[in-house]
Amino acid sequence: MSTELLNENKDLRRRLTAVMANARHNEERLRRFHEQELCLLSAGGLIDLLRHAVVGHRQVFGLETVSMTLIDPEYELQRLLVDLGCSDGFPELRFLESGEELAAFFGTAQLPKLGSYRAEHHAALFHLGPPPASVAVLPLLRQRRLIGSLNLGSREEGRFIPGSATDFLERLGAVVAIGLENAINHERLKHIGLTDALTGVHNRRYFDRRLIEEVERVQRTGQPLACLFLDVDHFKKVNDTYGHQVGDRVLQEVAARIKAQLRLSDSLGRYGGEEFAALLVQTDAEQALDIAERIRAGIAAEPFRLGGDHNLAVTMSVGMALLGAGDCDGDLPAAGERLVAQADEAVYKAKQGGRNRVERAE
Asked: Where in the chain is the domain with CATH 3.30.450.40?
């Protein structure tokens, strides 16, 4: 066999080896993608879904940076994460009040955007650690509505080239969006069972569960926990004079005004009847009393409109109690019960003192 034929044969073998290696690489990549897809679609909840979408993609695909941007104008997702005890567990997440910024980034095509990292375009999307060399930003779409983006970053300059593997990335974005929607709907269903139907705030069942979690946090971090017990003054008289329908409207407005003074990390529950209770995390006595006074003043400042020219003046008495690390003696449920009981006693003291006032437990 001539030297020329031998060289051609060697060249063909090299090409065949390269093709087979590329095929094996693509097959392995497809296998990993299918495994990740199954994990996303079978996620046990919102936290599990986010863990697979952010940490999982980074590990499975060998990326240095994976972040997610979510459009959350009503703060629903952020509240869900707070309720799940994970308000700061995913620094890779970024929330937007409006989708205009992200919609402008993708344009009308709403397709994945691949290319080299450019600070003016990508800095807000890749907000953790050193900037990557190349990026792929995937739109998350449900019923053609943009709900966020999945942001993939690599230190390899040629990892994400414009126009390459967009079908694969479109599918990846679609799977993440479906998984995210399923997880959110699942949490919404659970949330319904923990919400007071009349006022829209949490119910007693949720409050009792959250109380144990927050007492555990006090023991773990040493940060104080404040409890406010709030009672509408002379509410029986409202019902007797104006009827239960007006009483229900008063409770709805009271709940809304209380909620407006609380932070996302705080918890408000309807404790029973005209009584509400709030847990203020990492809040000292001075801060808690300030919040309580703002709530009291917000209720008393503006009469409740009953329709027409009829207005109803409503006031509220508030009791505050504080739990510090030294107050947790190992029996966490008992510590939580004491905290609420002390706040309740402080409300009674406020009632005895003339109502429409804030009192601190001794």
From this structure: 3-192
